[in-house]
């Protein structure tokens, strides 16, 4: 075949065009090995001669490199070389029609209106005080690998779907763990293993709230939880939060609600602790309105200078509390393992909904986690990582005091994986300017403003500018440098 002559038959021309397009758009990056001619022919239902013809022409045109006895690979720089060429082959994605909203379900339209977007990646060398991610160095890699190897050696001869409520070994181990660490009394049947706490909230929204029904949430509060309810058409009733958490004596003013979502152990984002009297008042409110209460216990493992209070679930005598927990803050958010402690009345319906949604969480991960809980490895890991996080928290608070002093007020440092920093002389209207100035200094900080609901927030300029600073991702020297850069950014904004 002469150079620069594309394959002539319909099948070979189509395959040739496909490979050029995928090389041009980066699907097949430089160095990517291609399947053998025999394997690709069998996969696509083509003759081997047809595939060989296409490979020969791709090699002749400089898009792939072939060597005897080795797999053909995409040539270096092939995508750039074909920058203009693939236009005639590329399949362009048609623009989304404006009428798409009319073809979506009500839930689809609600989700589209949320405009969640994707977070922009952290730039190289940028110090990011983001809340949520953990440091990969803190993960108990060797312990986890050992547990996984044990699980693989014990693989059952029968590979079948798991109980939607979760692996029995894990639920038994978790039952004992929650009893010891959180004082929860529950049966194994009340435990439901979920793919992270976000799935728990999604299940609650689908099963417990009618479209147009009302859900009480904290203000400021965890927006991803709020979105879970908004996605199903719920109306959010925003409850005030003060220095002692949810202002429960004002709940009656909000009107009827089917559900309340709260973070009583460590209010997000302010870090306050709901006192026992308010916990009982919240339960009385729920009982009087036959409402459910979701208790999100998202980071209770991190207590530095406070003693644990009784959970809402352990105080509940009427069966209205749904306790939600996660392993994302102690092991990894990538594992997607969380759990729910359900009232007995909800056990079956939640199990059925879980079966319909995704059958069950990954069995291997559940069994490995059960091993860590049973042999004490998880508890040892939590004690170790709690010391590491407390050191990071202390480094952040000390650096804030050293570089910013009386210019800031730190809130929520007694527990958790983040603090809120209020800038005394800076109005909330300057939050965006402060974030932008910090970004120019190579430090990424996150404003508290978006966590307030606009209709319930104070008028613009009536509160101080605030940042939510997470520290679980950073090393001690990086925290120090990040605060130094933040202080420099504050000087710029103040001027």
Please name the defining characteristics of this protein:
single chain, 495 residues, alpha/beta, 4-stranded antiparallel β-sheet, 40% helix, 14% strand, disordered N terminus
Q: How would you explain this protein's 3D organization?
A:
This protein has 495 residues and is α/β, with parallel strands linked by helices. It is built from 17 helices and 16 strands. The chain has an 8-stranded mixed β-sheet, sandwiched between helices. Strand 8, helix 11 and strand 9 form a beta-alpha-beta unit. The N and C termini lie far apart (71 Å). Residues 1-5 and 84-93 have low confidence and may be disordered.
Please give the number of β-strands.
16
The coarse overall form would be globular
Largest sheet: 8 strands, mixed
Binned, the helix content reads: 40-55%
Summarize the entry for a quick read:
With 495 residues, the chain is α/β, with parallel strands linked by helices.
SSE order and pairing:
Blueprint: H1 10-24, H2 37-44, H3 48-60, E1 64-65, E2 73-74, H4 78-81, H5 100-103, H6 106-114, E3 127-128, H7 141-153, H8 168-182, E4 191-194, H9 196-208, E5 214-219, H10 223-230, E6 235-242, E7 245-246, E8 259-262, H11 276-289, E9 292-296, H12 312-315, E10 321-326, E11 338-341, H13 347-358, H14 363-374, H15 377-403, E12 408-411, E13 418-427, H16 431-440, E14 443-444, E15 446-447, E16 464-470, H17 476-494
Parallel strand pairs: 3-14, 5-6, 5-8, 8-9, 9-10
Antiparallel strand pairs: 1-2, 4-11, 6-7, 10-11, 12-13, 13-16, 15-16
């Amino acid at each position: 075949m002469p150079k620069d002559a594309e394959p002539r038959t319909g099948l070979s021309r189509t395959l040739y065009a496909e490979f050029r397009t995928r090389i041009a758009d980066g699907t097949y990056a430089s160095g990517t090995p291609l399947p053998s001619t025999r394997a690709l022919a069998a996969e696509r239902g083509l003759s081997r001669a047809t595939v060989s013809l296409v490979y020969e022409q791709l090699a002749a045109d400089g898009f792939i490199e072939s060597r005897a006895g080795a797999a053909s690979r995409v040539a270096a720089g092939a995508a750039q070389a074909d920058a203009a060429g693939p236009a005639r082959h590329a399949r362009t994605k048609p623009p989304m029609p404006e009428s798409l909203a009319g073809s979506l379900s009500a839930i689809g339209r609600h989700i589209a209106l949320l405009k969640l977007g994707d977070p922009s990646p952290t730039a190289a060398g940028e110090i990011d005080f983001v809340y949520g991610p953990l440091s990969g160095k803190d993960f108990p890699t060797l312990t986890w690998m050992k547990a996984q190897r044990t699980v693989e050696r014990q693989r059952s001869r029968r590979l079948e779907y798991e109980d939607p409520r979760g692996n029995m070994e894990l639920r038994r181990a978790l039952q004992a763990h929650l009893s010891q660490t959180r004082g929860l009394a529950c049966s194994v049947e009340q435990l439901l293993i979920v793919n992270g706490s976000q799935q728990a909230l999604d299940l609650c929204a689908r099963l417990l709230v009618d479209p147009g029904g009302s859900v009480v949430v904290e203000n400021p509060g965890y927006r991803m939880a709020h979105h879970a309810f908004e996605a199903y058409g719920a109306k959010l009733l925003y409850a005030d939060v003060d220095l002692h958490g949810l202002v429960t004596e004002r709940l009656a003013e909000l009107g009827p609600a089917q559900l309340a979502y709260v973070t009583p152990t460590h209010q997000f984002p302010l870090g306050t602790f709901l006192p026992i009297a308010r916990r009982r008042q919240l339960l009385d409110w729920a009982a009087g309105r036959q409402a459910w209460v979701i208790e999100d216990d998202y980071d209770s493992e991190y207590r530095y200078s406070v003693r644990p209070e009784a959970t809402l679930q352990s105080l509940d005598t009427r069966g209205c509390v749904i306790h939600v927990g996660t392993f994302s803050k102690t092991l990894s958010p990538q594992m997607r393992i969380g759990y729910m402690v359900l009232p007995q009345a909800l056990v079956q319906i939640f199990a059925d909904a879980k079966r319909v949604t995704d059958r069950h969480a990954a069995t291997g991960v559940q069994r490995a986690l059960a091993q860590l809980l049973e042999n004490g490895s998880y508890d040892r890991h939590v004690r170790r990582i709690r010391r590491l996080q407390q050191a990071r928290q202390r480094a952040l608070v000390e650096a804030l005091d050293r570089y910013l002093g009386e210019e800031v007020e730190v809130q929520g440092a007694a527990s958790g994986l983040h603090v809120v920093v209020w800038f005394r002389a800076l109005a909330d209207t300057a939050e965006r300017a402060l974030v932008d100035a910090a970004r120019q200094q190579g430090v990424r900080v996150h404003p508290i403003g978006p966590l307030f609901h606009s209709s319930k927030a104070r008028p613009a300029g009536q509160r101080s500018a605030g940042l939510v600073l997470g520290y679980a991702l950073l090393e001690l020297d990086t925290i120090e440098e990040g605060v130094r850069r933040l202080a420099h950014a504050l000087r710029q904004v103040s001027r």
